[in-house]
Amino acid sequence: MKDRGSTLWNNRAKACILRGVYNVSFPPPTGGGSVTVVYPLELCPGD
């Protein structure tokens, strides 16, 4: 799991988010091999 361009300045928050995303699983691709998933996250301040 890699951060590929985060603008989040808080490294503890970034590490927490990466730990959570690391636990997401997908079914294996048909025929085997590997898959790269790119999923942008947009964080907004609460009210």
Describe this protein's structure.
With 47 residues, this protein is mostly helical. It has one domain (1-39). Helix content is 26%, strand content 0%. The chain has one helix at residues 11-22. It starts with 10 loop residues before the first helix and ends in a 25-residue tail after the last helix. The mean pLDDT is 81.
Compact summary:
The protein is an all-alpha fold and 47 residues long.
Short descriptors:
47 residues; mainly alpha; 1 helix; elongated
Secondary-structure map:
Blueprint: H1 11-22
Q: Roughly how many Å is the radius of gyration?
A: 14 Å
Given the helix and strand composition, which structural class is it? mainly alpha
The helix fraction, in percent, is: 25-40%
Catalogue the unreliable spans. none
**How is the biggest beta sheet arranged?**
none
Secondary structure tally: strands: 0
Count of alpha and pi helical runs: 1
Q: What share of the residues does DSSP label as strand, in percent?
A: under 5%
Distance between the termini: 31 Å
